[in-house]
Amino acid sequence: MGKNILTLTDHRTGETYELPITNGTINAMDLRKIKTHADDFGLMSYDPGFKNTAACKSKITFIDGEKGILRYRGYPIEQIAEKCSYLETASLLVNGELPTKSELGEWTWNITHHTLLHENIKKFIEGFRYDAHPMGILISTVAALSTFYPEAKNIMDAESRLLQTYRLIAKIPSIAACAYRHRMGLPYVYPDNDLSYTGNFLNMLFKMTRPKYEPDPVLEKAMDVLFILHADHEQNCSASVMRGVGSSHADPFCATAGAAAALYGPLHGGANEQVLRMLNEIGCKDNVPAYIKRVKDGGVLLMGFGHRVYKNYDPRAKIIKQIADKVFEVTGRNFLLDIALELEKIALEDEYFIKRKLYPNVDFYSGIIYQAMGFPVELYPVLFAIGRTSGWIAQWQEMLLDPQQKIARPRQIYLGEEYRDCIPVEKAGDPTEA
Ligand code: CMC
Questions:
Q1: Could you tell me the distance, in angstroms and rounded to a whole number, from the CA of residue 178 to the centre of ligand 1?
Q2: pLDDT (tens digit, 9 = 90+) per residue, 351-381?
Q3: Is residue 114 among the annotated active site residues?
Q4: Which of 15, 176, 370, 394 has the lowest tally of Cβ within 10 angstroms?
Q5: Is residue 303 in contact with ligand 1, taking CB distance under 6 Å?
Q6: How far is CA 279 from CA 273, 288, 384, in A?
Q7: Residue 307 beta carbon below 6 angstroms from any ligand 1 atom
């Protein structure tokens, strides 16, 4: 192993530069020393979509995309999904270690006792149209929480951060449930503190006239594991937005609303909804080859396939496939699964997908389970957002406490007009009048 130094020669000037390599990266600011003359701004790197730029150092989530490995704080996702609850996972992500029994008890108690929404929030939600997309409701209502808790601005106060953490993890399922019930024209259901985090969420969604809702244990466990699988995924689009908004020292409710907005897009967390729409459009197994052809011709994307980081099977998709079997034992088999399995089979054997290393991602099978459990398709990205909230908070807090972090502010390559004088409209000629 040689020295951790990169030697660069700038052939414009013939100068040679030595840049230190740390953690497999060079410091982008070192490039600025590379200049053609004293007034030159210095070299920058160009990386739209941040395909090869590390924007932070993190200790939260590790992904090896080539090998299909995902770990939260060092623990393999497969073990966490099997041995932990979602709230344990959330505590692990936010606090760095798995909680002890008493720590978990306190964490759970605090989250359970912040699930109630201010009554005005419900009035706020009532203002939405009956067919408003629940993700739009979630995004705006989470932003509105900032007005209910103005002390959340004290982002450098650890106690305040913890309180907002409890509130966010606790209230997002309550908002999601209200968004759903609003859409269905059903009265909102108050949280039931006797139930687990996930059991209570199902209660707030599905309770009808019986005085006590009892969640099916298989479905409750499946939903909890789905929350775990969605909890964090290092510097994805929404986590980057969370860090970006948070870097201006906005409060965590506004930052979470921004992150949720990023998640909503069909290339990110909105993909689960689009997968279901795609499977419905395909309609039956026999139509799969024709759909694959459309994908290869560039007409449509195979939703739920491909990933910026994974160039192998997404480990979360593997676990979700196993959950599907358990859920279907309770709900009955979703016929869309056959179409999905056929799509996967054909795609994994096809040169187009093999060459581009396109595999099923977390969103490919999750929607089929959600549908079997009775969730309307528009709610799928909201379910993703509930699980991801703990990850967003962990990323936000890590960013705030990192002394190397600054306000997010990328550079650009300006290719617009050079200097020109502004001519008042009355003096400028109008080509359309000619
Ligand atoms: N269907 C067909 N072709 C695809 C797909 C797909 N789903 N994904 C990527 N490709 C092709 C793409 O057209 C490109 O081909 P070419 O080299 O000929 O131009 C090549 O594969 C590389 O794709 P890319 O767009 O450069 O890759 P990216 O890293 O910028 O995008 C992605 C990653 C997830 C946005 C993309 O794979 C995609 O749009 N997938 C479908 C949407 C989806 O399932 N999103 C959920 C992601 S996982 C959950 C989450 O984190 O939100």
A1: 33
A2: 999 999 999 999 999 999 999 999 999 999 9
A3: no
A4: 15
A5: yes
A6: 10, 9, 19
A7: yes
For 252-267, the pLDDT digits (tens) are 999 999 999 999 999 9
Which amino acid is present at 61? T
**Measured distance CA(277)–CA(275) in Å, rounded:** 5
pLDDT of the residue at 432: 73
348 pLDDT band, cuts 50/70/90, is very high
Please provide residue 377's backbone torsions phi and psi, each rounded to the nearest 5 degrees.
-60, -35
Quick check: 242 pLDDT over 70?
Answer: yes
Pick the catalytic residue from 363, 402, 421, 430: 363
| pLDDT tens profile 151-174 | 999 999 999 999 999 999 999 999
By alpha-carbon position, which residue is closest to atom 17 of ligand 1?
356
Distance 321 CA to ligand 1 centre (A): 21
Atom of ligand 1 nearest to the CA of 295: 2
Nearest alpha carbon, ligand 1 atom 14: 356
Interval between CA 302 and ligand 1 midpoint (Å)? 8
Closest residue to atom 29 of ligand 1, CA basis:
308
**Which residue among 307, 314, 350, 430 is the active-site one?**
307
Residue 218 CA: distances (Å) to CA of 94, 225, 330, 372, 431? 27, 11, 8, 13, 70
Q: Which residue of the set 133, 182, 268, 314 is catalytic?
A: 268
Q: Among residues 431, 309, 291, which one has the least CA distance to residue 359?
A: 309
Q: What is the arithmetic mean of pLDDT over 187-191?
A: 96
One DSSP character per residue, 65-88 reads TTTTEEEETTEEHHHHHHH--HHH
Beta strands in 81-146, from DSSP E residues, in sequence order? none
- Angle of the 252-264 helix axis to the 158-184 helix axis, nearest 10: 40
Give the containing element (helix H, strand E) for 172: helix 158-184
